[in-house]
Amino acid sequence: MAPAVLLVTVFLLVPFVWTIYRSFFSDSRTSGFSWFGNYTRFVSDPALSRSIVNTAMWVVGTVLLPLVLGLAIACMTNATRWSRLARLCVVLPYALSGSAVAVVWNFMLTTDGAVNQVLTTLGLGSLAHGWLLTWPGNTLVMILANAWQATGVAVILFLVGLQSIPPETLEAGALDGAGSWQQFRHIVLPQLRPISIIVIGMSLVNGLKSFDLIWVLTQGGPGRATETLAVSMYNETFLELRPGAGAAIAVVLTVIVLAASWLYLRRQLDVKGE
Amino acid sequence: MSLGRVLRNGTVAVLAVLWLIPTWLLVVNALVPSESYSGGPHWLPEGFGLFDNMSQAWDQAHVGPALANSLLYAVVSALAAVVVASFAAFATVVMPVRRRVLWFWVIYSGTLLPLQVFIRPLFLSYAKSSLYDTQIGLVLIYAAIAIPFAFFVMRNYALTLPREVVEAARMDGASWWRLFWRIHVPLTRSAMIAVFVFQFVAVWNDLMFGITLTTSRNIRPIMAALADLQGNYSNVGPPVVLAGALLVSLPTLVLFFSAQRFFVSGLKIHR
Fold first, then answer.
1. Where does the record place the ABC transmembrane type-1 domain (chain B) (predicted)?
2. For A44-62, what is the mean pLDDT?
């Protein structure tokens, strides 16, 4: 056990405490203790307020889209045989990294990219524009790109859940005269509850931590418009050279992530280990 | 065929095609020889320049050494995490250790925190201790970051094993060391493989530590090299960049589809 405790403490817990400590010191040259001075920047700095709004959009998008699409696709492809192929199409992107997804979607979304090409061909050239250039459109398309990748895992998990529902339950429901919608609503959905919580929790935390896709696609730009908290932290610390502000962002992000984790972990953890 | 069925199959087909389009364009345009690429994306394969594009990516973005680096980082740190985490799981589950709950939280807390909270202190102390821009530095942090989750999975799995085996072996006078290698390791092998696969992919796909803790091309991991290649998009042209993305994704694609079973079990045990 000692090596695990040692590695985690030295590489993770000590830096964590140091970041909390650092967040209370200002970034001026004297670097004095400034209580919550760095935290007030969330209100005073428009880039950071924007970052909070973007993070909220990411969270809603990364939770809702994979949940709804994943459930729908899993249910619709569970029954028929040919739909395995369809399912493969959806699951495939999950095996790509965030950076690779960014490369693919940059190709789709740049000014002479695939989306604009399709729009022009369809005679909708007026709709074609630089998708990554204007807010809030750029954040929305990146959330869609993320959903393209993340839905696959939701589909896999929901299928596992669907296959664990005993067929007798459904048959009993059908005998009692439940239509297929009623079956879904009253038998399938309640049984998928535990899996849904896993999917929601996973997407929530991934949405909050999302970094790779945004970093490779826009680096948080143009003009810091697409930053989420994770990207803002990196920008403030390493590009704007305001480590105190960066530390404050990291702490706020941690609090949000911990709160989100708590929502689903408390159902799952059996800490006593007995 | 009922209307409902037609609707359902139609929806599935539309969704599948929508999902396939980016993948399709990725493959098709990575195939187009970069000299003959002009203007907009191609929708149908034309010529075969995949290997040329890949080798251009290999040379221009120095993807080659980065691939070797990432292979080293992913294998070594995932292995280290599996070994260290199974020791820890063995200690907290099988051995009569005091304050198990405390130790559990000390180790597990690492996976709950976002990476952003570690990165600057690590950057500073790496710079001071000459771990910055070294392979051993990256292996250490990747292993450290992988341990909490690996521990969590190994521990949950170990909890499901029957205790009688351990008690019987102790009665027969087996040492803890012997017990670990002869009983614990063989019984938890499938969880170990799941954890290894999962952590291999996590390390392989990491971008943030790669761009923060390294600068040289012969140290940098693969996703940092890919981000760099993407930064050169207008110079090298889309086919080379896409071929690069495809190239760096091949190992995880292969692993994912050959070990899907382990992925799913890993995911289920996790969150």
1. 67-259
2. 88
